[in-house]
């Protein structure tokens, strides 16, 4: 579904990713863990097409298409979703306005008919219920005045509404308390744990993986994946730390 080969990426004059290889098949959930500065967020931004993250070598294929040849909005329309570590605030625009425009823009790009206002609200209510988010929250300005946990839950509602084929979730567990972590984890499972979808979770900690159990865990260090294992690898990292596990 997603195949990354020999990916090199630099920010400014600094090379961050140095020949990263990764393949995620449909129906799989992969987790990437690693120390600070390893290149985890750089990988997510490179996949999403964020300006300033220059791919200097390698390839990324998404469902047979050259992902790197697409603009960010084209990647989104093709079914790629990027969850941000720090979701941005957009004053003056309500979540409902923002999400309806985003969804109908993607539907138009795929040659599908737009949803009417009533159809969209029904869809939005269903997805908000999965994340236990009150619809009044969706009437507020995008992330303005939201707590960290509310921003992440609202972002997962956005993912449910857009219904992507593949989600890249960059430290989705950041800023979540115990209850919000469980709700977000259950939401990810409900939306994305399906045989025709894929997920790449980028995280520092094992705690989210208690709820969203990955098929594979990869350790990213100095711009490359240096070790791959099953879910137990995340627990081993939590207990022993990166240095000891990578040295084994």
UniProtKB/TrEMBL annotation:
SUPFAM superfamilies: P-loop containing nucleoside triphosphate hydrolases
Ranges where the ABC transporter domain occurs: 2-247
Keywords: ATP-binding, Nucleotide-binding
One annotated GO molecular function: ATP hydrolysis activity
InterPro entries registered for this protein in UniProt: ABC_transporter-like_ATP-bd, FeS-cluster_ATPase_SufC, P-loop_NTPase
Pfam families: ABC_tran (PF00005)
Keyword check for ATP-binding: yes
Protein family membership: Belongs to the ABC transporter superfamily. Ycf16 family.
Family annotation (PANTHER family): ABC TRANSPORTER I FAMILY MEMBER 6, CHLOROPLASTIC
NCBIfam families, alphabetized: sufC
Entry protein name: Fe-S cluster assembly ATPase SufC
Organism expressing this protein natively: Parapontixanthobacter aurantiacus
């Amino acid at each position: 579904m997603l195949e990354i080969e020999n990916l090199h990426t630099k920010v400014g004059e600094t090379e961050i990713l140095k020949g990263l290889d990764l393949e995620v098949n449909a129906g799989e959930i992969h987790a990437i863990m690693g120390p600070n500065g390893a290149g985890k967020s750089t990988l997510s931004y490179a996949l999403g097409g964020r300006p300033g993250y220059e791919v200097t070598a390698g390839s990324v294929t998404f469902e047979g298409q050259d992902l790197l040849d697409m603009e960010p909005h084209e990647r989104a329309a093709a079914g790629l979703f990027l969850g941000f570590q720090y979701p941005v605030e957009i004053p003056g625009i309500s979540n409902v306005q923002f999400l309806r425009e985003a969804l109908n823009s993607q539907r138009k790009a795929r040659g599908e008919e737009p949803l009417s206002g009533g159809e969209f609200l029904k869809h939005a209510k269903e997805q908000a219920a999965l994340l236990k988010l009150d619809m009044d929250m969706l009437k507020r300005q995008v992330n303005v005045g939201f707590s960290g946990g509310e921003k992440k839950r609202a972002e997962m509602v956005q993912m449910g509404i857009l219904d992507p084929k593949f989600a890249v979730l960059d430290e989705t567990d950041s800023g979540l308390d115990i209850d919000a972590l469980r709700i977000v984890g259950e939401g990810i499972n409900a939306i994305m744990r399906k045989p025709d979808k894929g997920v790449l979770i980028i995280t520092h900690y094992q705690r989210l993986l208690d709820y969203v159990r990955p098929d594979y865990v990869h350790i990213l260090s100095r711009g490359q994946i240096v070790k791959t294992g099953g879910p137990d690898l995340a627990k081993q990292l939590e207990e022993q730390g990166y240095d000891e596990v990578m040295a084994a």
